[in-house]
Amino acid sequence: MALDYSKKVMDHFINPRNVGEIPDADGVGEAGNPKCGDIMKIYLKVNPDTKVIDDVKFKTFGCASAIASSSMATEMIKGRTVEDAWNLTNSAVAEALDGLPPIKMHCSVLAEEAIHEALNDYRAKHGMEIIPVEHHED
Amino acid sequence: MFVYLDHTATTPTSPEVMKAMMPYFGEIFGNPSSVYSFSRKSREAIEKARNQVAASLNADPSEIFFTGSGTEADNWALKGTLEKAKISGKNHLITTKIEHHAILHTAEYLHKVEGVDVTYLPVNSEGFVSVEDVKNAITDKTALVSVMFANNEVGTIEPVKEIGALCREHKIPFHTDAVQAAAHLKIDVKAMNIDMLSMSAHKMYGPKGVGALYLRRGLHPENFIHGGAQEHKHRASTENIAGIVGFGEAMEILQGRLEEDKALNSARRDRLISGILERIPHAKLNGATGDNRLPNNINFSFIGVEGETLLLDLDAKGISASTGSACSSESLDPSHVLLALGLKHEMAHGSLRFTIGRLTTDEQIDYVLEVLPEIVSRRREMSPLWEDYIKSQA
Ligand code: FES
Question: N or C end: fewer C-beta atoms under 10 angstroms in chain B?
């Protein structure tokens, strides 16, 4: 299938930001894509006093759109508080990438879900209430 | 550097072929169906091409029918045969799980609309259909057996001659989709017991938009395209004369260099295969080896990476290739061929196909071997699946 990705998608795909792991992460989340079987893993380092996400890393097995979404999403939550970071939506990620082909929107959902899982992992470990993760297609 | 390694998708029309086609766009434009002497030249051109194609297959020219594509030839063979067979109460089609969509989707259509029973034969891990399985699937309702000559994704060459012989024994027509095979292998329809065979010109350095169906004398499937009396009343439409001329020319040129090309391509193929196996850990070759594989096909799975990302990374280096990954298909399903070979979803995900041809050089093979290991290892580094896989191996 021929895909014409935006320049931003290609940039984040060719040079993804925040790739890797955080060994002593405060929150780890993983999401899988029921559609095509891809996996995304997110690691968070949170400042204990300010609750600000100081560092975030990801590992993704998936298409260019999934990798670019992971990269962009991690950029977007870095420096935000754990509360605020929850509000990041996949459509905001897609928009920041100057759009994704319709068939590839679900790849950005993966990023949103993995971040939610990581935030919930952090919340659980810090006595905060778990927020139910809503699954959606695009 | 532009490195085109997708010759199975299509090939460039060769300059000699284009030269032969040119007069038929302008100068010799007469409608072959017209009565006046001017149009005779158009008729003659078509008959010459028919002879060229027939000679290449050891068929009679009256057994060659030009179509708009290989896909059309497949549609015609299946629909025409099954529709005709209704009269005699036969409604069973035998085919395989690894056919091209031109066959599979036509079979699904026949099942849905005509109530045809379809048996999809499995293949083994190298992609071979078993003759025994064909035999066991035959019933007194079987109207047609259709097994591809060679697979487009993994290059496995099927035992068509044996399947053809079996079908002869049971008096069941045997069709083979030879769209890929005809571009690389010597085909003798008589010696190979083939009753119907589909071909396409653009896979063999001819133009796009023209194909052919070989129909053994005595077989009369229903027509597929209805209208005028072209192609001996079997395929309506004003003939694509330039395209047909190009097809004939391409086919004749191909026959003259078949053995030479085969030797050169297989040597490069095997060098690329062993080079990848040497340089990239945990790489798996998909399909058969040696003479049982199309001389131009290389198909690998790299666990831990996704194919679309490999294609884009390769594209950034000027290399054109193809993948069977779910992420790169419209349906988000992985390649049905790789799944039929027994590959797990994640292995189909990480598949990469290179198909070499006349544009390929030894330098290009070296170049791929130089850049690919780096691309695969970089993408593996960012993959959680690779991490898990490596841990599980430790
Ligand atoms: S991750 Fe499979 S389509 Fe994007």
Answer: C
